Amino acid sequence: MAxxxxxxxxxxxxxxxxxxxxxxxxxxSTIERHGPLTPSALADCERIQRPTATRxxxxxxxxxxxxxxxDPSDGRVSHVAITxxxxxxxxxxxxxxxxxxxxxxxxxxxxxxxxxxxxAAIVERLLGDRPPA
Amino acid sequence: MAxxxxxxxxxxxxxxxxxxxxxxxxxxSTIERHGPLTPSALADCERIQRPTATRxxxxxxxxxxxxxxxDPSDGRVSHVAITxxxxxxxxxxxxxxxxxxxxxxxxxxxxxxxxxxxxAAIVERLLGDRPPA
DNA sequence: TATTGTTATACTCTATAACTATA
DNA sequence: TATAGTTATAGAGTATAACAATA
Lengths: 133, 133
What we know:
Strand content of chain A: 5-15%
Distance between the termini of chain A: 25 Å
Shape of chain A: globular
Oligomer: homodimer
Helix content of chain A: 55-70%
Order of helices and strands of chain A: HHHHEEHHH
């Protein structure tokens, strides 16, 4: 439930802060990390459905954060890549220009930050692995 | 971003599992913990707006998880309390009938569970405190 | 026929603004 | 006039189902 409440809070802050929404930021981060990828690959990485990936990519493209290039050999496929503007935005988010998070995290003890970092890694691992059939 | 992705995953699981959504579960949990409270108080606790609280309470009431009783001395106010059915549902969620979470958590080492528990407490504390002006 | 991507549709969660009833 | 609550409206995020184009 802490996860649910925190996710809600982050969305609210992104709203008022004018930043990209957490959903778009997470997708953009995946596109940066995994290099140019197809909408389907993005869907797999982010654990969203393909139609959702279509919309997310469309939004990112509108804002100039990604570009799409058609695959030369397969007419169905396109490749989505991050733009310099996209990288700049991600860097800004990460370097704590996100005032809300920065303020709150500054209140924590170093060992508490450490705990959060470890927890994030554990959660990412849980999400990354396929659930046992 | 781990928080955003995990929140999404939890919602998807609640969908397919037929459980109450994470939002409703979190609200119900607050109602249980803080005793009967008014919709406004719920809004404050959950950091949602009052109209959102109205809808959440309406949904919970439909499902028989809470009841509302009018305040005897102030005609504007009502008090929302958890029902036995509501308690049962919460207990079921907590006692790991939530198959997805249970399965994934069983894969973790004890010290990893410990880390997650501590992280949850830290996040709740961050959310509970007023942000510094 | 199978796959990639898109469009159509619908539902949840959430917000803001406007309204009602009570104090 | 101020407060508690609701209704109206809107937008983000997400899903499933149906479709198009390509392989």
